[in-house]
Amino acid sequence: MIVMILSNIVVALLIILMLWYAVHTIRKQRKEDGCGSCKKNSAHSCPSSGCKGCSYSNKCH
Amino acid sequence: MQTIALIGNPNCGKTTLFNELTGITAYVGNWPGVTVEKKEGMWNNIKVLDLPGVYSLSPYSPEEKLSRRYILDEQPDLIVDVIDATNLERSLYLTSQLAELGRSVLLVLNMQDLLEREGIVIDTKRLSLMTGCPVVSISASKGIGLESFKKEVEHALKENKAPACPLFSNYVENLLTTIIEDDYLHLIPSGRPQRWAAIKLLEEDELFLSSMPPIPEAFAEFLHQAKTNLRLHFEDDPEAIIIDQRYKVAEHIAKHCQTKKFQKKRFNFDTIATSRFGAIPLFIAIMGAVFYLSIGLVGGYTTGILENFFAYLGSNLSILLDSLGVFPLLSGILIDGIIAGVGSVLTFVPQLFVLFLLLSILEDCGYMARIAFIMDRLMRTIGLSGKSIIPMVIGTGCSVPAIMSSRTIEHQKQRELTVLVTPFIPCGAKMPVFALMLTYFFPGKWYIAPLIYVLGILAVIITGLLARAIDKHKEKNAFILELPRYQLPSAKNVYLQTRERTLGFVAKAGTIILLSSVIIYLLSSYNFTLQSVDSDDSMLAIFGKFISPVFIPLGFGFWQASVALLTGIAAKESIVSTLSVTMGTQALSSFFDPASALSYMTFILLSSPCIAAISAMAKEFGNRKKLLYALIWQTGFAYLTALLIRMLAMLIL
Amino acid sequence: MAKTMDELTVGQRAEVGAIKAPKQLKRRLMDMGFTKGVDVEVVKMAPMGDPMEVALRGYNLCLRKAEARVIELR
Ligand SMILES: Nc1nc2c(ncn2[C@@H]2O[C@H](COP(=O)(O)OP(=O)(O)OP(=O)(O)O)[C@@H](O)[C@H]2O)c(=O)[nH]1
Ligand SMILES: [Mg+2]
């Protein structure tokens, strides 16, 4: 009985951990690739702000 | 925080230095125009910027405009002018433009390690005296001289002294002095030297003029007169005169600072690589060898082993979890979702590793620019340029960097056409689908795999010819490309690039593929009342059946195939993981027949790429409408071709 | 008519004279180092006779015959 409960918990935790990791990483990448800093700080002129998304375009996206 | 910007001619080693300083793995390769975006990194509390290479501050292609705009508008605290020491004279031409900006400049003579072999000696003290900039010698790829580089940067940041302007001939200098005296020159942006502005006025630099208020009439008259005088005196346009004067300065400095021993000609690989009859066969052979080694040899060996491994892992784990009494929901997610889905993608890591390895060797040895050279004539007949071949070779690894690398094509229409056709070249992530289908439906028929590439190339040609037929007015456009020297690929570079790309693929398996596998598993195991059902009655099946009729003519009108195509938009690898989660790869042959397998492969090959590549396309087009047209073309073309292939296959097979 | 660069054959050297081209192309070529008096040598022709590879100022460059045609020699 205890073994069963324990193993269920372990498997569930494992899955949750993996899913959390996946979502976390994807969101982190989104932020890096996206245009976060431009939106937050409108004084930031777009093409020259640090974020990858704007580094090239004349206008923001 | 202080900012230093790395700028210099293309291919002089800026990114190599940037990587060395910041520990980032940015894209390095041995051809001009590898970096097309600005990249930031931190080094000892200093912000370091890597910029696309430029030959001069009058830019031509989009990525060169970025460098110019950055250098002029952002005013970094220190301009680090990276110079390929084996190519001093031309590099000093850019230096003569940087020196005028009124910012401090540090000259970095890179590629020290090559000087001896080339018989070149550079007097750095003298160079520093003549240019008024501190000079430091390094070798970025060998990691030599970085200590003194660091010292010089700190020193230059503290001192913050602008270098002396390069002086032109007396006639031009006198003219510049009189221009500077005019009141109009007080209107220039602060921090910009007046001499620089005066030169821009003579050159009629459009970007500069558009940033300034209109020129008063009297001064315009005066400028006009000055330019006419210049024309008469030098028998050339003012702009050309300035360029000529700058090169005279560069020649003068180079002559006094560098001695070159005469070198007898060594054997050059170009004797074969760009020879009249051998060049194109050699190119085909090299690409063929790359694919044979990765997909054929390594892939053929490892795929089966890894597939068995994951199947073994799954079945044993399932027995173990059952015996422990784990709920079917949990063990299902773990085994039929995660292990089946992620495993089916990880199976391809070894062959992609080899593919990435070979591609990075190809990119670092200097052959890429030669491919553009030998293919230009052929590419022109389909409305592209020799430079369009570089994205296509890179595209065999991944379409995203490939699409970005098309930015170095100066001509806008050619650039957009290149962006449109690059996804037709199958990327590494599409390989799993092809490999899966080929092993199940065409075992032993080795010639089908190369045909996939041929089909991709045919799609490029047809699209190119069509675009040319529609676009009647043939504009003239230039093809000017520096051919870099051949070199033994640097081991460190090849290692870093290969690791970066392989880890990228593995990371995708651990994130997007994992997530989509779990979702697909859940959706395909439960119905809308959340009861565990047979997958044919699941939510996913009901949803998939909305789309699947569209594909009946192509022979894969069942919901699993359509759902797999949809998940393929997130990442092309998930087509395989979705197929293996929803029906299990063993059951493939009860769904597909050889003809529909071929048409499925064709559709995947040609239809719109994954979301990452789509957004790369969006960025290059800079325009939603063009992107939409491109996607419609790709998908429509894929549909028709797949239909055709299926009909042909049904006739033949 | 002055001789132009596209008329050179492999191995020939010459000195660059005037460039007769639209503004943009002329500036581009000059930026790459084709100024009056500079020495150029034709190194190679591509397999189909176009583009051509030339050496100048210690480096190699390829350009099409159409572009070479605007560079006059002296
Ligand atoms: N021998 C030698 N090769 C070097 C050195 N530094 C860089 N390289 C090579 O030069 C080539 C170009 O390097 P990159 O760093 O990509 O050049 P880049 O200036 O960033 O080029 P772009 O991004 O195209 O402007 C690569 O193949 C490097 O391995 C060096 O110090 N010695
Ligand atoms: Mg670079």
List the helices and strands and how they pair.
The complex is a heterotrimer of chains A (61), B (653) and C (74).
Chain A: H1 2-33, H2 36-40
Chain B: E1 2-8, H1 14-22, E2 39-43, E3 46-50, H2 62-74, E4 78-84, H3 88-98, E5 105-110, H4 112-118, E6 120-122, H5 124-131, E7 135-137, H6 146-159, H7 170-180, H8 194-203, H9 206-210, H10 217-234, H11 238-257, E8 258-260, H12 270-273, H13 279-324, H14 328-346, H15 349-365, H16 367-381, H17 389-395, H18 399-405, H19 412-421, H20 431-441, H21 448-470, E9 480-483, H22 491-525, H23 539-547, H24 559-570, H25 573-582, H26 588-591, H27 594-606, H28 611-621, H29 624-652
Helix pairs in contact in B: 3-11, 5-11, 7-8, 13-14, 13-15, 14-22, 14-25, 15-22, 17-18, 18-28, 20-27, 21-27, 22-25, 23-24, 24-25, 27-29, 28-29
Chain C: E1 13-19, H1 23-31, E2 39-45, E3 52-56, E4 59-63, H2 65-68, E5 71-73
Antiparallel strand pairs in C: 1-2, 1-5, 2-3, 3-4
The complex binds guanosine-5'-triphosphate and magnesium ion.
The site of magnesium ion (MG) has 4 residues of chain B, from helix 1.
Give structural notes.
- Chain A contains two helices and no strands.
- Chain A is an all-alpha fold.
- Chain A has helices at residues 2-33, 36-40.
- Chain B is of the alpha/beta class.
- Chain B has three domains: 3-159, Rossmann fold (3-Layer(aba) Sandwich); 170-260, Helix Hairpins, CATH 1.10.287.1770; 279-652, no CATH class.
- Chain B has helices at residues 14-22, 62-74, 88-98, 112-118, 124-131, 146-159, 170-180, 194-203, 206-210, 217-234, 238-257, 270-273, 279-324, 328-346, 349-365, 367-381, 389-395, 399-405, 412-421, 431-441, 448-470, 491-525, 539-547, 559-570, 573-582, 588-591, 594-606, 611-621, 624-652, and strands spanning 2-8, 39-43, 46-50, 78-84, 105-110, 120-122, 135-137, 258-260, 480-483.
- In chain B, α13 (279-324) packs antiparallel against α15 (349-365) and α28 crosses α29.
- The longest helix of chain B has 46 residues, at 279-324.
- The radius of gyration of chain B is 29 Å and the shape is elongated.
- The model of chain B has no long low-confidence stretch (mean pLDDT 90).
- With 74 residues, chain C is an alpha+beta fold.
- Chain C has one domain (5-73): SH3 type barrels (Roll), CATH 2.30.30.90.
- Chain C is built from two helices and five strands.
- Chain C has helices spanning 23-31, 65-68, and strands spanning 13-19, 39-45, 52-56, 59-63, 71-73.
- Chain C has a five-stranded antiparallel β-sheet.
- In chain C, β3 and β4 form a beta hairpin.
- The radius of gyration of chain C is 11 Å and the shape is globular.
- In chain C, 45% of the residues are buried.
